[in-house]
Amino acid sequence: MNITVYAASSGQAAPAFVEAARRLGQTLAAHGHTLINGAGRTGLMAASAEGCMQAGGEAIGIIPQFMIDQQWEHKGMTRLIVTPDMHRRKEQMAQLSNACVALPGGVGTLEELLEIITWKQLGLYLKPIVILNTAGYYDALLEQLQRALTEQFMRPMHSQIWQVATTPEEAVRLCEETPLWDSNIRKFAAL
After folding, report:
1. How far does CA 27 lie from the centroid of its chain?
2. 100 near 83, Cβ under 8 Å?
3. Beta strand pairing status for 129-132 and 163-165?
4. Residues 64 and 88 sit within 8 Å (Cβ to Cβ)
5. What would the pLDDT profile of 120-135 be if each residue is shown by its tens digit?
6. How many CA atoms are closer than 13 Å to the CA of 68, on its beta-carbon side?
7. Over the stretch 121-178, which tens digit does the pLDDT of each residue have?
8. Is 62 helix (H, G, I), strand (E, B) or coil?
């Protein structure tokens, strides 16, 4: 499987987040999966890719040209795909994936996660989406998503769009075991 990993590029993340990212990469490699991410040279993006490659796995980075111009890319990726812009980057990360995992991150990571959840709600992405809730990082977002369900901005069935894991190992297992989303659910996207 190709597993897209959304993750922070910040080099200021606490060690627990960095370690979980590295373990996710190692676990993906141990299970024979390829990691796909945004090719950042720092933060959880780098930790997950390096964990994967150090464990003998492959890590594909997808990055827009303007980030290469700023020298933000990880130069050690197994393969680097350069896109013209952020929109194409996110599209390719989704197209190449068999599942997505969201590690902790800032607004970029949150935006990627919420976009792929939206695509799945609309039946445009049918694959597993796993939120790795390291140290409760995503508790507030999960509460907000639950409120969207409670307030009927989403249907109850939409709560199955994402899975939540507390360990990297559980995240990989959920990627492997969660069935594809039914594309017929698209007709239920509007309330």
Report:
1. 15
2. no
3. parallel
4. yes
5. 999 999 999 999 999 9
6. 14
7. 999 999 999 999 999 999 999 999 999 999 999 999 999 999 999 999 999 999 999 9
8. strand
Amino acid at 44: L
DSSP three-state, residue 149: helix
Q: What amino acid occupies position 171?
A: A
Question: From residue 32, how far is each of 19, 25, 51, 177 by CA, in Å?
Answer: 20, 11, 13, 15
Count the Cβ atoms, other than its own, within 10 Å of residue 188. 14
Interaxial angle between packed helices 15-30 and 43-54, expressed in degrees from 0 to 180 and rounded to the nearest 10: 40
DSSP-assigned letter for residue 167 = S
Strands 59-64, 34-37: pairing kind = parallel
Average pLDDT on 49-67 reads 98
Mean pLDDT for the chain overall: 95
34: β partners:
2
Q: Give the pLDDT mean for 4-23.
A: 96
Token couple for 35: 């990691």
Picking from 57, 94, 97, the residue whose alpha carbon sits closest to that of residue 77 is 57
Q: What is the largest CA-CA distance in the chain?
A: 47
This prediction's pTM? 0.95
Give me the numbers of helices (H) and strands (E) for the chain, helices first please. 7, 7
